[in-house]
Every structure is written in structure tokens, then in C-alpha cells.
Amino acid sequence: MLPWMPPTGNPVQGDPAGGYPDPMCGRFALHATGQELAQGLRCPRLAGLRIEARYNVAPGQWILVVRPERDGLGPGLAQWGLIPSWAKEPREGPRPINARAEGLEAKPTFRGAFRHGRCVVPASGFYEWKTEAGRKRPFYIRPRDGGLFLFAGLCSTWAGPEGAIDTCALVTTTPNAVMAPIHARMPVILPPEDLDAWLDPGNQRAAALLRPCDEAVMEAFPVSTAVGNSGNEGPSLIIQEAD
Description:
By secondary structure, the protein is mainly β. Helix content is 8%, strand content 33%.
């Protein structure tokens, strides 16, 4: 079974529980089977993957990423919170969990990962917090017809004297009609037909794929504030609460 390791290392930028202002897409869920992952990503190698169901994946944890390899797509693990490959010391400086799509290819923190480390992060849904009457209320956003969201991600490998570590950030964009009442940003969710183009390292026009997804493919509803504690887990976190 693919493990989900606890947070380690430097605090990551954007953790909803870490005091950073206005974080975006700081929690998500993944409870798909290996067969569902294989179908959603068109990657047969995922069919036999056994992965622990998670309903509160948080920054700093290890997340499943899918990247192109010589013989097709392959799964791997990356710690959520990107360390640029050029960083002198991984424990110094911010570790962003999100990367804004606008001008992404020119930003020093992300341009290397954008050129050489584009990946996909599968999710069953994600959480976002809406400010209502001065309080933040969590919403769960999931595919309307079931299945998976395919987040556009960036992977970076930092190598040091003690070894290498793979890290990752999720790309965000402006909100669609479902997300606009909840938050000013949303993750880039790739439609299946854009998957190959995003993962093609030779594609010089990949930035054009970083746009809001069709609102018809998703739905959002309020859930328990228990998701705000990264120590809470289980399917009860995605049960809809009354408006």
C-alpha cells in the first residue's frame, strides 16, 4: 500500500492551519481505487496501486503525482510544498503549495519545474474556505458525476548531500462560476483531453492550458469545520451540512 507520510521539514506556505493569509486549495481528498486512477489518467500502471483513502490531505504531506516516463506515465510521491532545485538549503525560505498560473513560466521559483517537472495530481475533491459574516466556512468541491479531478501540478527535485527529495505545488487560476462565490482562486483542473499536452515536455504552449475548468463538471457544498484540523480524517469530513 502506498503510504501517506506525516508532515516533515520546513512549514509550507499556504497551510490553512499555519496562519498564512488567504490560502488557496490547501486541503484535498483522494479515495479512489487503483483501477479508478488507471481509468481517469489513462495509465494502466496505476491499476494495481493500493493507496490509503485520505479525506484531509494537507500541506507538507506526501501526495500522489503522475509524471511522464520513458515508457509512459508513472506514479510517484512528492511532498506538498515546492522546493526549487536551485535552493541552497531546503529548510530556508517559503515552500509554496500553490503556483499562480499568470506568468508562471517566468517566475524564478517555478520556471524550472514548469519546463521540466509538469505533473498531474489526482483528487476526489478539494476543500475551500468561504468567508461569511467574518467567519470562514469550509466547502467541499467534487466532480458532479463522480470520478477524479486532475490537478495541474509542478514537481521539483532538490538534491543535497543527504539525498534527494521530490516536492510539488498545485497550479491555480481565476475562479469559474461555481468557485467565484467561495474564493478568488481555484486549482487548474485539466480536462482529460488536455492531459497529454500538459505532460508533454516538448510542448511550448502548455501555459495556454492553465484556465478555469467548465463549471458544469463540479459541485460545491458546505461541510464540517472539522476539516480545518489536519489531524481529523475519514469520510465524515465530506458529508454535506445544511446551508
